[in-house]
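Fig. S4 source data, part A: sequence.
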Amino acid sequence: MVVLNKIYTKTGDAGETALGNGARVAKHALRVTAYGTVDETNAALGLARLHSDGEMDARLAAIQNDLFDLGADLCRPDMEKDAEAEYPPLRMSEAQVKRLESEIDAMNADLAPLRSFILPGGTPLAAHLHQCRTVARRAERLTVELATVEAVNTAAVTYLNRLSDWFFVASRVVNDNGAGDVLWVPGANR
């Protein structure tokens, strides 16, 4: 259980922060930047949810929870020491990836194939989901970069890759199943 009875601790005043294993690192460390961008994705998703309801909102809520799981995973280095940890570290799972894939397939089944790239826009929810998609892609790039220098759970990287696809397909669904998509017209303003 998390207990937050004091919000500021002053331990980060010198530009360092603690990782999930207690190690202190610079606030600009790549690992911190990666999980910070996952948090940014979650904040963008919170704004998107202001325009959602019903089943779509329930799916977005599940993703918000997953993003906290993902942040917990990324803030905990030393995966090889998970068995020695005081408590089992939270790691992203293949089941979370499979859930996204299943939802993508179900949403995409009713959409017409694309014949053009889509410009972010349409309904307010679709526009926000496109914002979520781009922030999730940035989180993915940073996490992939982190994986070149430190161990990263492969399910975390895969989840981020599927998540941006999920946001793309969901944006089409909330744009009247693609009827309200804003299509790119190459060279339209030459």
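Fig. S4 source data, part B ends here. Strands lie at 16-18, 24-26, 118-119, 182-183.
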